[in-house]
Structures are given as C-alpha cells and as structure tokens.
Amino acid sequence: MSDPGLLSRVDKRERQRLIGILLKGVSRSFYLTLRVLPRDLREPIGLAYLLARAADTIADTRLLPPDRRLEFLRLLQRQVQGEANVPELERIYAALTDKQSTAKERDLLSSLPQALAMLQDCREVDRELMRKVLGTLIRGMEMDLTTFPAEDSGRLAALETRADLDSHLYHAAGCVGEFWTAITMAHTRALERWDSQVMFEAGVRFGKALQLTNVLRDVPKDLRMGRCYLPKAELVQIGVDSDELLAPAAGARARPILARGIELALGHYAAAEEYLLAIPRRCLRLRLAAIWPVIIGLATLSKLSGNPGWLDPTHPSRVSRLWVYRMMAFSLAAAASNRILRAWIKRWRKRVETGL
Questions:
Q1: pLDDT tens across 157-169, in order?
Q2: Running DSSP on this structure, what letter comes out for residue 18?
Q3: Burial (CB count <10 Å: 0-12, 13-18, 19+), residue 215
Q4: What is the DSSP code string of 112-174?
Q5: How many CB atoms lie within 10 A of CB 59?
Q6: What phi, psi does 185 have (nearest 5°)?
Q7: With bands split at pLDDT 50, 70 and 90, how would you rate the model's confidence at 2?
Q8: pLDDT of the residue at 5
Q9: Strand ranges (DSSP E) for the chain?
C-alpha cells in the first residue's frame, strides 16, 4: 500500500479494474446488471456497490467478535463521510485481511484506498448521494451486529415486531432503491418528468421487495447464524418459538408466517412493477436493469411458496443460473412493451399465489 498520507488519484486503468474485474469477482450477478446500465451510471453505482460490499465483508468477518467489527465499520464510515486517508484504511486492511476466506475479499479490502479516492474525485451530486446511501447501509449493518448474537455463540435472537423488520428492509435495500432513483434521475434527461417523491417511495418499496425475498429465502441459513428476521410478535401469534424453526419439520406449522411474508413482498413488488413501467421505453438499459431483479425476485418467491421444506437448509428456494440467462434473453424482446411486461409479471405473481 502507499505511504501514509492523503489518497492518490486513481488512473483510468485502475478505475476499470475496480469497476470491472474486482466488482465481478465479489458479485457476478450484480456485475451483469452493472454492465447493462448506461455508461455514465456504471461508475457511481458500481463504486457505491463496491464500498457497500467492503462494509458487508467487515460486518461478516466471523473471526472477529462483533464489537471489533463495529469498531472497523465505524472507522470505514468516517472514511466514507469525510476526507479518507491511507493510514486509517491500512488499519482495516491489517486487522482483517488474514481473516477473509477468499482472495477476492482480501483484494476488495486492500483496494479501499483506491475506491475512496474515486469517491472523493466524483462530481459532488454523485458523491453526496453515495455517502448518504452508504451511511444508511452501514447503520443497518451496525443494527444487525448489536441486535443479534455472534454467529458461533449458539444463541438465537429474533426481531421483535413487523416495524423492526421494515426498518431492516429499509436499511438493507430500501435505501438503495432511493439512491438508485436519485442517481438515475441526476444522469438521465428522459426522467425529467418523473414525480421525484412518488418515484422515491416506489424505489424504496422496490428495494424492500428484493430484501424481503432474500429474508424469506434465507431463513434456514440465518437461523443457523443466530438471526431470525421473522418478527417474534408474529411467531407468538401462531404459537411457534424462533428456536423451533431450526427443525425443518416445523415448516408446516410456521407456514402462516411465510405466507404473510410473501403477501407483504407481493405488495412491494406491485410498487416495483409501477416503478419499472414508469421508465420510458426508450431507456432500454434502465428498463432491463429493473426487469431482471423483479422477475428473479418473483420467480424466487414462486419457488419458496411451493417448497414444503422451506425451513430445510438442504432444500433452498433458488432459481438456476441457466434460468436467469434464459430470462435475460427473453427480457430483450419484452422490455419495450408495457403490455408484455405486465402480462409476464402477472404470470409470475399468479405462480406465487398458487403456491400459497
């Protein structure tokens, strides 16, 4: 790493490495979405994702106790929100790099000086939007670390209420929908007629739809990490304790709470559909970037609603990579037609509802 002091400017080749090879290494699926975006949106959105992914890597470093992870998350937060400098970033790298399971995560942490130098070099409107969303995402990670026990403690904690779940959904992804809306409006003249308040609200619900899908899909994995995002108040209503959910056989008894979660997600997907259709048809790349998560999310809910072993970690509710590629190919023909898109989404919603 460079000598202590201020961050150095990042040249074109390094910028391309960060938003290309490095980002692809830490998230192949998001990389596909990034590549379809208009060129001038790829760098600010890709950079925001990289920095969020670095924060997530810190939060997930199980070889460090939660209080130490919080310390480094807050250190990163200060670097993101202010004038970053190399010595502080080297503290993060030195403490965490040997605790990462993959070379890609080590590369991500070692690239923080370059990523933050790019952040500081962004145009002001992009920089402030990125700082806002990163601040919210990191606060959400801090909330998880203070709400739930350490992953290897053998203990389990649940969120208390539906409001707590909604707060998690906002901090984990709703704020990303807000950010996505703001930054695409700042870069896209065709969106000048958008009602910003309406679209911000729809963007938040879009993000919540995707995160709630992840929450419901990942219940078995999260439970084994000591985390139950299904609200305790709702579990009590159906006479199930969060500890009981560790037994796959409890899936039938707990199915009402899965059904409630899917119905809530479908409500958010209705807002996501309107968001998608509000994107002008001539903005094909922006439309594709919105279509893919909507269809993948609904297809995942369809798998989940029809999965009697939804609490069994050996029976995950996931779509295949081949299915994703086929969906993407069809989306190229469907993207310009609101009628086809509505029919496509309606068909997937019907599959989800049939499974319930």
A1: 999 999 999 999 9
A2: I
A3: buried
A4: HHHHHHHHHHS-HHHHHHHHHHHHHHHHHHHHHHHHS--TTSS--EE--SHHHHHHHHIIIII
A5: 21
A6: -65, -35
A7: very low
A8: 56
A9: 157-158, 227-228
